[in-house]
Amino acid sequence: MRIGLLTGGGDCPGLNAAIRAVVKRGLGEYGHSIIGFRNGWKGVAEGDVMPLTRNDIRGVLDTGGTLLGTARFHPHSADGGLDAVRATLEAERIEALICIGGDGTLHAASKVAETGTKIVAIPKTIDNDVAGTDRSIGFDTAVHIATEAIDRIHTTAESHNRVMVVELMGRSAGWIAVQAGIAGGAEVVLTPEEPFDIDRITRYLKHRHRAHASFSIVVVAEGAVPAEGTSMEWETKYGTFGEIVSGAVSERVAEEIAARTGFDTRVTVLGHVQRGGTPLPSDRILGSRFGVAAVDALQQGHTGVMTALRGEEVVLVPLEEVAGRAKPVPAELIQVANALA
Amino acid sequence: MRIGLLTGGGDCPGLNAAIRAVVKRGLGEYGHSIIGFRNGWKGVAEGDVMPLTRNDIRGVLDTGGTLLGTARFHPHSADGGLDAVRATLEAERIEALICIGGDGTLHAASKVAETGTKIVAIPKTIDNDVAGTDRSIGFDTAVHIATEAIDRIHTTAESHNRVMVVELMGRSAGWIAVQAGIAGGAEVVLTPEEPFDIDRITRYLKHRHRAHASFSIVVVAEGAVPAEGTSMEWETKYGTFGEIVSGAVSERVAEEIAARTGFDTRVTVLGHVQRGGTPLPSDRILGSRFGVAAVDALQQGHTGVMTALRGEEVVLVPLEEVAGRAKPVPAELIQVANALA
Amino acid sequence: MRIGLLTGGGDCPGLNAAIRAVVKRGLGEYGHSIIGFRNGWKGVAEGDVMPLTRNDIRGVLDTGGTLLGTARFHPHSADGGLDAVRATLEAERIEALICIGGDGTLHAASKVAETGTKIVAIPKTIDNDVAGTDRSIGFDTAVHIATEAIDRIHTTAESHNRVMVVELMGRSAGWIAVQAGIAGGAEVVLTPEEPFDIDRITRYLKHRHRAHASFSIVVVAEGAVPAEGTSMEWETKYGTFGEIVSGAVSERVAEEIAARTGFDTRVTVLGHVQRGGTPLPSDRILGSRFGVAAVDALQQGHTGVMTALRGEEVVLVPLEEVAGRAKPVPAELIQVANALA
Amino acid sequence: MRIGLLTGGGDCPGLNAAIRAVVKRGLGEYGHSIIGFRNGWKGVAEGDVMPLTRNDIRGVLDTGGTLLGTARFHPHSADGGLDAVRATLEAERIEALICIGGDGTLHAASKVAETGTKIVAIPKTIDNDVAGTDRSIGFDTAVHIATEAIDRIHTTAESHNRVMVVELMGRSAGWIAVQAGIAGGAEVVLTPEEPFDIDRITRYLKHRHRAHASFSIVVVAEGAVPAEGTSMEWETKYGTFGEIVSGAVSERVAEEIAARTGFDTRVTVLGHVQRGGTPLPSDRILGSRFGVAAVDALQQGHTGVMTALRGEEVVLVPLEEVAGRAKPVPAELIQVANALA
After folding, report:
1. Exposure of C41 by Cβ count < 10 A (0-12 exposed, 13-18 middle, 19+ buried)?
2. Which domain of life does this protein belong to (chains A, B, C, D) (predicted)?
3. Which fold has domain A142-275?
4. Which residues of C touch A272 (CB under 8 A)?
């Protein structure tokens, strides 16, 4: 079989583990040809191919990023995009496609699958908001990096008696914020799931600093918003992607806290480091398992499905049940974050 | 309520997160008294108490080990052990007990629960072999440390054209070996679950070194054994605990490989570092969630249960379904390890 | 002897190692009393004391920040500041003072020494710009954190074909930028020592991207400025402290690069994480050696001196030779950074 | 110029940074050809060449090991070794040689230099015992890995009330043991420089455990030996290399401690992980500086010299002043280790 392979959307740690697994399983076990496309769907549309051999995947297991490159390009949104994809797949005699990506890539995958192409998708996103799977590739490493940053900021907060506001990724879901908030022992965690009341927060911080502590950590997901009718207005309207300005909400939150409490308040916007570097073992393992499972799924005749982690098992779920749906942070996790603040 | 709290068995990262969560939830939310016992069941038998306040849990979230201390002591195996436990619980007016531990501690917990004491258990073990839960506290960090060691040994293996044998923990189950083996890209992974054939392994290594590589990593769980009837005999008989000598099997395996292949072969026994140091976020989060859940379970009147992770949820499972049962590595994971070698 | 001890200026990793060493050496070897002051010179002026015992320094060797707290307060700049310091030292019967700090603290130390107080100083600053010593406490760890961030950003730059601009600390000297730039393999490093020409930089980036690479890392010290007469104007005038706005120069540099090259260009401002977290061994060792040396220096009757690292030795240098002088990055290091770009 | 390049002896982190710098500086700045030899002097003797291009050094800055491979082979000790080296250098028209290595490689370099070959050497050794330079490539990373291990073992020691004996590398000098011992807060540090008295050590441990602590860390360099006339005999005689058996001394020390104190005592032999993995920034920087300096030295006509770090400067020292001389740990460092125990 000639299997096409692409990585789309933002890069993250663990992608190379998945690429390696697809090549090792597809080429090594079944003798398939694995044809990589550069830069996600863009490379498919443009016919930018990179046939993958054992040599290409040597030494990549513990590296971040994606050796195939990636881009934020959606063929179904671009003029003639789906036709260009179709043309390349025919020209390259691709019999099936493995797509590694987040919400946008999965949505494109389901559109392309509708045109008759055999497709198996693999979920990756540091935001962990892909539905149908307990975890996506890249999330655990992002939480680790964010937690490490909070640990570091903790010692400064304590030494200087400061309120430190830390902005983490998460436009539509607060997974990183909640998990890194629990792991880093944050006093306040603001997420898109639960619009916040700045008055309640500053009252809590004042109470805490009076009672027993002289510093606090406030973790803010970049998509956090104030609740309607609370005293902090927030003029900007957000869409799902792209319009959120990095640093905007945390700067505003810090100003409000400083103004209401008088505490020395500082902001850190963690930014791009959250998606880079050496993947944690769990992301290497997840990428490896999903890569093997995707090739096996094609071998067994599956199409229009996504590999997913459910408890300790890797299963297949229909793409249509998944694409376009988000996965909010469960109430229990948010409750733990609040209970331990 | 007066709640007793203990940590038993080998120490691991994430215990302090659980202790902190029990104190914050129990004392902060419900106003319970949390009475710690030093050094596991030994401290209960001896009446060695340490009432826990908010001060005791300050700054412990990101620390390894257990602030309560621990010991390998099983009251039901010691003369008069259960009576001593009973006496202390009465003297201290303990109304319920939260026990954090692995197989031995859980077994003791179920024995003590039979005497009428209210008990909720929290599973911890770097070996991840407690049944009924996807993960136990400490496992993820142990896999991380083991993988980091393999990554390091990898560069030496490659620079010197060596076979490096790495012995990891795991007496009755090969969880660390399999996960760190996949994450570290090991060529061979030997586990207690699958007795090995040294001839097959050395044939594979010779083939690999002839074909394309000049080095290999062989990961060995300390409880790995050769299959009956294969050419490597293994005189020692192992019990479940304690009789396995650290380094024994890896030294033997290395000798056999060197003798049959002529390759420069070296051994590293990773040992105690696998249970120490800063917990990964996932172990801090698991400890935090289990700690909150254990207190809530007592509050709701549960007893004789263990907190457990199932997919994305924390649930309660009856202790009797869990104690004494092991949890072997699933076939799919072992298959991934083999597929990617 | 009653020895006062304070940490001043920004916090950094390795301070607790120095505090621990002062207590262990002073109290344990010579039987001195060690009287800590909270929050730097502010605590001296306000008489905010914290007598230090062996218990206070237990478990702090590998922790960031300072257990004494710190503040940016200079007694010689505050009304009646020196008198208040003097009054506290008398009231507490302090016979000598050990001051751990950067340029500001050392300057204050030399002023207080002039009033007759016995003083030994210990240099700390993540910026490494204290004269007279090869290294100050905190620098190596800051370089490590900055390098790790560049490593992470590297994989994203490569996966997305981007120019990544990374702003690191360094207002008056580019030590962190140059060392992390070399260690992280940055293509361009901008420092306060060498005003930059944005045209030359963008020509180089265009050449590089045409020739063989599709991504670049540009490291910018926060005190970097464009050279006079070059095409990028820079209205703001900087003083030595405080007026530099975090992120300002890197945002401008990124805009100019994007405008002139058309490359997708992103900014990361690393910020506070550079001063936090677990100290590297070299900072724990430097803090330990300086702490022991400072107590020994007082014991031997020295005053008005600073502990310093020179090659492999710890020596004492007169405070007056050091205070107020900066230490620029040597030309050889900058040349290596450029040679390897 | 055609410059030969080799890495000899044990591998360590930072070698690839030096190789990269030699190629970038030699090829990029001066247009030289850089001819790598595989596996150290063995590759020179066997004519095993690998011409190095920019492509070969892409992405290697942050990797451990050596892309050239290495071996413990000394041409002056092998029959016809120097002649074979000479023959290869002529056949490959090598005009100068850059040798990266430790004591053995430097000794070989001085022998080969005597035959008229232009040679510049670069010191590397995790043991840091090369004379003439403050630091050798690989040492800082080894100390970091060893310290991290001690940090991890610390939490286990404390949780279980144990004496943990940790064996670190260092056959003829105790650099790693002393620095990691200080950084990790070890109670006892045994080095080759100072033969130990087991009675004094066990008395100290008993005193400590009675007084205030219930655990201890004992760091042992693998070349540590008991002092003559003390109660612990040590039959084995050691040479400078090779005859020391890994784990031997630490096992004996642990047995003696357990027998005399009754404390639960465990051994960890850290082994090969000390030389592997991602180099710390300081080793990447040192490798980069030495690589640039070595090429520049050849360009300026130097031969028979070694690059060296002295304080903040890179200088050249004559090979004859260096080869065959060891560099013991200075007394001040050992004193700090003891003072803070």
Report:
1. buried
2. Bacteria
3. Rossmann fold (3.40.50)
4. 152-153, 156, 164, 266, 268
- Report the residue of chain B nearest A336, measured CA to CA: B289
Q: Tell me the mean pLDDT in the region A238-248.
A: 64
Residue A238: pLDDT over 50: no
Query: Which of the residue ranges A209-213, B39-43, C25-29, D175-179 would you say has the lowest mean pLDDT?
Result: A209-213
- Predicted confidence at residue A236, as pLDDT, reads 54
Contact A155 C11 (CB under 8 A): yes
Which residues in chain B have their CB less than 8 angstroms from residue D151's CB? 276-278
As a whole number, mean pLDDT of residues B305-325 equals 94
Q: What is the pLDDT of residue B229?
A: 87
Q: Is residue B9 pLDDT above 50, yes or no?
A: yes
Domain locations in chain B?
A: 2-138+279-321, 143-275
Centroid of chain to Cα C256: 29
Measured between beta carbons, the chain A residues lying within 8 angstroms of C158 are: 65, 69
What is the pLDDT, as a whole number, of residue A237?
Answer: 44
Nearest CB among C28, C292, C312 relative to D330 is that of C312
Kind of pairing between the strands at A313-318 and A305-310: antiparallel
- Asked, colleague to colleague, whether A2-138+279-321 and A142-275 share their fold, the answer is yes
C-alpha separations of D104 from A6, D168, D241, D243 in Å: 49, 21, 10, 15
Residue-wise pLDDT tens digits, C230-276: 888 766 544 444 467 888 899 999 999 999 999 999 999 999 999 98
Mean pLDDT score of chain B, rounded to an integer? 93
Give me chain D's average pLDDT, please: 93
CA of A27 to nearest chain B CA: how many angstroms apart?
A: 11
End-to-end CA distance of chain D: 54
> D141-275 domain in CATH 3.40.50.460?
yes
Which residues are paired to C34 by β-bridges? C3, C52
Choose the closest CB to D11 out of B64, B70, B156.
Answer: B156
Do B104 and B172 contact (CB within 8 A), yes or no?
no
Please give the pLDDT value at position C233. Answer: 75
Distance from CA of D284 to the nearest CA of B (A): 16
Regarding predicted confidence, which is higher, A262 or B231?
Answer: A262
CB atoms closer than 10 angstroms to residue C59: 14
CATH architecture of B143-275: 3-Layer(aba) Sandwich (3.40)
Both structure tokens of C338: 């450029």
Tokens representing A138? Answer: 């890249």
Higher pLDDT, A245 or B202: B202
What residues of chain B lie within 8 A of the CB of D10, using their CB?
160
Residue whose C-alpha is closest to residue A218's, from A86, A336, A337: A337
Q: Which long-range contacts (CB under 8 A, 24 or more apart) does D186-189 make?
A: D186/D150, D186/D217, D186/D218, D186/D219, D186/D337, D186/D341, D187/D216, D187/D217, D187/D218, D187/D341, D188/D216, D188/D217, D188/D218, D188/D219, D188/D341, D189/D218, D189/D219, D189/D334, D189/D337, D189/D338, D189/D341
Q: Residue A341: pLDDT above 90?
A: no
Give yes or no for a contact between A133 and A309, defined as CB atoms under 8 angstroms apart: yes
Do D12 and D123 meet the contact criterion of CB atoms below 8 Å apart? no
Option in C64, C152, C268 nearest A277 (CB): C152
A127 is catalytic: yes
- Catalytic annotation, pick one of A48, A79, A83, A127: A127
Can you tell me the distance from the alpha carbon of C158 to that of D2, in angstroms, rounded to the nearest whole number? 32
* ipTM value for the complex: 0.95
Q: What is the DSSP letter of A52?
A: E
pLDDT computed for residue A235 by the predictor? 63
> Residue D323: which of D138, D121, D135 has the closest Cα?
D121
Helix/strand/coil for B238: coil
> A2-138+279-321: which CATH architecture?
3-Layer(aba) Sandwich (3.40)
Rounded Cα distance, D338 and D102, in Å: 29
